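Memo subject: From amino acid sequence to discrete backbone structure tokens
Action wanted: Derive the backbone structure tokens from the amino acid sequence.
How to read it: Take the token row as a discrete description of the fold.
Attached in line: The record itself begins immediately under this heading.
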Amino acid sequence: MQLEEKKKKEIEFLEKIFRAGSNTLSNISSIADKQKKAIERITELGFPNRKIEDWKYYDFNPILENFLSLDTCKINQIENESLKDFLFPECEQNLLVTVNGHFSEKLSNFSFSKEDISILNFNDPEQLKNHQGIDELIKKYFAEGIEDESNFFKACNTALMSNAFFLKIKEGVQLEETLQIIHISNEHCFNQTRSLIHLGQNSKIKIIVTYVGLAEIPFLNNAVIETILEEGSELVLDKIQDNTQKGILLYDLKAKLLKNSRFEYNSLNLKANSSRDKISVDIDEEGAHADINGLYILNGERKAHNVITVNHNVGNSTSSQLFKGILSDRARAEFNGAINVARDANGTDAEQLNRHLVLSDEAHVDSRPQLNILADDVKCSHGSTIGDLEEDEIFYLLSRGIKKDDALAMLTLSFCDEVIQKVKIPSARQHIKNMALENLDTQMHKANLVHNLR
């Protein structure tokens, strides 16, 4: 795209946001105030470009070239049958579904006790009125720090959202069942998906979120999740990008960890045409632990960007990052991971590892692991590897009578398995392995190979 044409499209994009923003102001004053500040911040930031470090390797052309609607996204008619390929059997009784950013009560099913867990659209005054004390949490944590927000698209989400999930786990409630959330896009539009998750003290839940594109048309899903883990709470959050070959997913997750809380996040990027995950974890009290993992398998000309920041703002806390990628054809990937240790945050133990298998001369990876340490008594490590499959491992399998394509499939799936095994739901693990094989374009004995690696 020529520079002049690109500038013109950026201005058109901004104009659409400003027009749409005037129609999406909340009826709740505290939210509306944040939305107005978001519009101001969008004006200050302007459309992002590659001169900004966080966007250095990102291609904005697919966003600008597709004239995405901002004001016509709605719930299209979708039947339960459409969910069968994406719903995991273990989650049938605890399922939340959104369509084009809007909650669908018809497609959802929920068996958790309302005494244990609260779920509502926190941008609805009537729903908010029926949940005592939640309005104070919204004021405190929704779009916190919007005045200094550096992510243009997160500011867009704040300004343009109409529906907004609030999920609150009551203090002391430890749920063994997994909650699945399916976000469906089936329109040529710019969807805003917003979630705020709050875990009370000593509470526990597992959530698996699936992003799905049903229509064979381009769309942009702009997702923002804000998560607060109170003292002693535990959250496992798995995210799967599924069946979104024409889709662009922009994903911004911010997690705030308080004393002795534990947060595990697993990102499985398997289908999106283009994706960008910006993960920010603030460890604000001692004893907290963050475990951040990702897997991306890219073919064709698909792209995946991971921008990860873990801030150890206090000492005596731990974190780990493990991201693995497999690229073939002309795919591109970026890993930009940082561990920041604040001054006097002694006793920090943090590690980071990024590994890639590059199976094509035309595929490309940019990997930038970073350590920024201002304390003395810490244990921190990072590493990055980019390579191909080991010839001796291939030769070993061939010498045992295994066909070459099958050997390649076994080795690449074995490379993935460390991350896949972190997903707790058996049917989800199987689903991920099946998609991995499809992306690797191996047609031989898929079922048997996956079974053997289970």
Notes: The first strand starts at residue 94 and ends at 99. Confidence is low (pLDDT under 50) at residues 442-454. The CA atoms of residues 127 and 421 lie 38 Å apart. The first helix runs from residue 3 to 21.
